[in-house]
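Please fill in the sequence for the structure shown.

STRUCTURE ENCODING:
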């Protein structure tokens, strides 16, 4: 009898431990800031804690995220009504995440916006874009204020492009792709709206940026199997083209942990 009671106690303790672990795991999963569920679509939008701590930035991100989710809901619902065979496994899944990349000078916030979608194709798709937020102005800006000129095919953009191309070729070799096709990389244009989504890289010097990182989605500069790429151009490369504000915010080196970040 004593043995039986002991066995029951052990089993009960194990069950309680499992339930507690499950509770911790569920609590650790972030709740979406926007969630839409229909027969055709399950869409979620997530903002990280730093973004949510800034009311203006959070409101701007939520407004954009909600517009994105509603647009996809309308399109998915329409497709579900006219072509239900496109949904053999149930509703499509889409997710958007806003994640803080860096905060420079306590003012300029770089955000990486990652989109994921699974619409029942051969494989899910993902894409990346970036946002640069000026906390002082309370709005999105470009990197133009940091450079004396950003004309298409101008000296600044040509220097950026050379840095991007060199970085991508190095990264491909580091991934063991010796005989890769360079056409996608060489096709990158020295134009601010064509060169790729850009962010301010963090620095070993607090409050500074070590340069620019350019974020490329799968397919952008290689095959889908290669995944995404991040190209880094150090600020020293762009020193001749910096405005006084650019000189003020750039400095230091790229932290080792950032170099090792998942591509």
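FILLED IN BY: designer on duty
SEQUENCE:
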């Amino acid at each position: 009898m004593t043995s039986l009671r002991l066995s029951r106690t052990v089993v009960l303790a194990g069950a309680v431990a499992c339930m507690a672990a499950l509770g911790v795991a569920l609590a650790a999963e972030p709740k979406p800031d926007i969630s839409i569920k229909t027969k055709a679509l399950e869409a979620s939008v997530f903002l990280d804690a730093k973004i949510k701590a800034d009311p203006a930035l959070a409101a701007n991100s939520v407004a954009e995220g909600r517009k994105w989710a509603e647009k996809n809901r309308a399109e998915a619902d329409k497709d579900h009504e006219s072509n239900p065979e496109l949904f053999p496994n149930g509703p499509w899944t889409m997710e958007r995440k806003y994640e803080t990349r860096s905060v420079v000078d306590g003012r300029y916030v770089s955000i990486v916006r990652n989109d994921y979608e699974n619409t029942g194709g051969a494989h899910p798709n993902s894409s990346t874009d970036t946002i640069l937020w000026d906390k002082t102005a309370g709005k999105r800006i470009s990197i133009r204020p940091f450079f004396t000129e950003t004309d298409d095919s101008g000296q600044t953009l040509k220097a950026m492009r050379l840095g991007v191309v060199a970085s991508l070729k190095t990264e491909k070799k580091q991934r063991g792709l010796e005989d890769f096709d360079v056409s996608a990389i060489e096709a990158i244009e020295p134009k601010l709206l064509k060169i790729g989504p850009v962010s301010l890289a963090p620095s070993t010097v607090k409050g500074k940026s070590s340069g620019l990182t350019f974020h490329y989605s799968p397919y952008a500069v290689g095959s889908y199997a290669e995944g995404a790429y991040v190209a880094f151009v150090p600020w020293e490369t762009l020193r001749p083209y910096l405005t006084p504000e650019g000189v003020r915010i750039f400095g230091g080196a790229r932290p080792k942990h950032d170099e090792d970040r998942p591509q």
